[in-house]
Amino acid sequence: MILPIYAYGHPVLKKVAEDIDNDYPKLNELIENMWETMYKAEGVGLAAPQIGLGIRLFIVDTVQVFEGEEEPTEVGLKKVFINAETIEESGKEWEYEEGCLSIPDIRGDVKRQPQLKMWYLDENFEEHEEVFTGINARVIQHEYDHIEGILFTEKLKPIRRKMIKRKLEKIRKGQIDLDYKMKFAKK
């Protein structure tokens, strides 16, 4: 089932999410719905707060980023992350243009470190400690920010934040036309 994506301005996007355990109701169904919702919106990642749930769950599919490249620079991944915790970020920060399904039609350069070491549980609640690099690390860092209550717009340079202020207000008010369902904050 395709779920509505919560838009910029909704309070759930600014809260630190809570851990879950393997008794979380209908978790497998929720994860399936998240995949379906993410693909419908043409995203590469989706965090539970973006569908209105304040839990530490996000999904990532970067395989699609590298599809069609004759010589891909990286190997994509498709994973579920539950109760994830960043252990370490390292390397020289690099800028890359990011966007977000909760903040449609706005993009901006965000600096992030290229290597990420993370601990997480998968959909079977098996523990993993892994190192991710490049685009994979970036997408995971972006989604991880969501479960920490941080939006990519907060990481933009001040001049860029000022430039998008009106657009953000339009999104907050629901004054946007999209190809996917969104839920806006109550006025």
The 3D shape can be described as globular
Mean pLDDT: 95
Return the CATH topology: Peptide Deformylase
CATH class: Alpha Beta
Helix and strand sequence: EHEEHEEEEEHHHE
Q: Structural class, from secondary structure content?
A: alpha+beta
SS element count, helices: 5
Assembly state of the chains shown: single chain
Relative helix content = 25-40%
The Cα radius of gyration reads 16 Å
* Low-confidence runs of at least 5 consecutive residues: none
Strand order of the largest sheet: 2-3-4-7-8
The total of beta strands comes to: 9
Give the domain tally.
1
Distance between the termini: 27 Å
Structure description:
- Helices cover 25% and strands 30% of the residues.
- It has 187 residues and is of the alpha+beta class.
- It has a single domain, classed as Peptide deformylase (Peptide Deformylase), CATH 3.90.45.
- The strands form three sheets. The protein has a five-stranded antiparallel sheet with strand order 2-3-4-7-8, with helices on both faces.
- It is globular and about 40 Å long.
- The model has no long low-confidence stretch (mean pLDDT 95).
Helices, strands, pairings?
Layout: E1 5-6, H1 27-40, E2 45-47, E3 57-61, H2 63-66, E4 78-90, E5 94-100, E6 103-112, E7 115-121, E8 127-133, H3 134-147, H4 158-163, H5 165-173, E9 182-183
Parallel strand pairs: 1-9
Antiparallel strand pairs: 2-3, 3-4, 4-7, 5-6, 7-8
